Amino acid sequence: TLFRSPEMAATMKKVAEDVNVTYEDQQKINKFARNTSRLTELKEEIDDKKKQLQNLEDACDDIMMLGADCSMIPYQIGDVFISHGEEETQEMLEAAKKTLQEEIDAIQSRVESIHSLLSDLKVQLYAKFGNNINLEADDS
Questions:
Q1: Distance of alpha carbon 59 from alpha carbon 55, whole angstroms
Q2: Do the Cβ atoms of 97 and 53 come closer than 8 Å?
Q3: What is the rounded CA–CA span in Å between residue 99 and residue 5?
Q4: DSSP assignment of 46-80, as one string?
Q5: What string of pLDDT tens digits covers the 140 residues of the chain?
Q6: How many other C-beta atoms lie within 10 A of the C-beta of residue 53?
Q7: What's the pTM?
Q8: Which of left, alpha, beta for 130 (phi over 0: left; psi -120 to 50: alpha)?
Q9: Terminal Cα-to-Cα distance of the chain (whole angstroms)
Q10: Rounded distance, CA 95 to CA 89, Å?
């Protein structure tokens, strides 16, 4: 990590003032910020869906452990529990897992396209502003 003295910060500020920020540059900076925010939201959504998927997998494992001990298994649909046989419940869980995995894959694809866009914007913005702009995530 680079620590800057107040004098260096003032010098950097003066250099930054010398760089002309056009409307197009500001649009790129705004686009970068919006997509960075969206990327964070999508990553959180992926984490949530992965937890849901893990819960479904745990439910499948629990049902297998029950075996023939339980003839009817409650399955939650919305706010309602509906009882089904073991085989039908397993099929419903598998369908739910498949749907969830497809959603995760679709979101992951969007994340990759946003990463690509952010990389392009970084190249353009750093080419113009150099060290006068910070586009790195602040992991604090």
A1: 6
A2: yes
A3: 53
A4: HHHHHHHHHHHHHHHHHHHHHGGG-S-EEEEETTE
A5: 344 444 444 434 444 456 788 999 999 999 999 999 999 999 999 999 999 999 999 998 988 887 666 678 888 888 998 888 888 888 999 999 999 999 999 999 999 999 999 999 999 999 988 888 888 876 54
A6: 17
A7: 0.74
A8: left
A9: 13
A10: 10
